[in-house]
Amino acid sequence: MIIKAKHNFVLDPFFRHYVLWKMKRHFHSFSINGEIEDNGLPILLICNHVSWWDGIWTLYVNQQLFKRKYHFMMLEEELRKNWFFQYTGGFSIKKQSRSIFETFDYTAELLSDANNMVLLFPQGNIKSIYQNKFVFEKGIEKILQRTKNDIQIIFQANLIDYFADAKPNAFFNLHNYTASWNVDEMENAYNTFYEQCLQAQAKKEI
Q: Residue 129 has what pLDDT?
């Protein structure tokens, strides 16, 4: 049995306020880049995974732009250690287990509701922020094969720069993906998008 998300009426709003406080405390600035139109569909958010902050950053983006009911996939062992995430939208996946198919079905079920957003890290685990080549695991394709309705797929690329500031500046880059649901094509598109984000970031000046 997988661990399903259970948004708690106390913990969930508390966590949303905590996110903003945490970011303001630890970052000099944070900005959202990229014009994204909300199509009114369930949202699958595909994001690079470079730190503990990624889930907080994507929740912030959701609060600012989409205001969906926020869900995110976590390794089962991590979700059991950080149990409170279950009550803020976290649900489990256990690799090399038969329950993984239950997770795929559950994710597709979440993506059948236009009120929902689901965050996936297609790399599967945290990688260095200096990595610029992404390899998607096949699970995302299994989820999309089970998704029978239209959804909006959004790419997010998180980047950090300090410039002359003591605290880092966080940049959340967004792109609306509308092409094939084939995992290889999606992987290539994300890599192209990420390279464009890096090039644009390199041109920024203080």
A: 85
Q: How far apart are CA 7 and CA 192, in angstroms?
A: 35
The rounded distance, in Å, linking the Cα atoms of 189 and 182 is 11
- Between CA 50 and CA 172 the distance in angstroms is 13
End-to-end CA distance of the chain: 50
- Lookup: tokens for 7: 């948004």
Which CATH superfamily does the domain covering 11-17+30-202 fall into?
Glycerol-3-phosphate (1)-acyltransferase (3.40.1130.10)
pLDDT at position 82 over 70: yes
- Would you kindly state where each structural domain of the chain is located, as residue ranges? 11-17+30-202
Report residue 88 CA to chain centroid gap: 14
State the pLDDT at residue 110: 98
Rounded distance between C-alpha atoms, residue 130 and residue 30, angstroms: 19
Label residue 24 by pLDDT band (50, 70, 90): very high
CA angle centred on 157, ends 179 and 48, rounded to 5°: 90
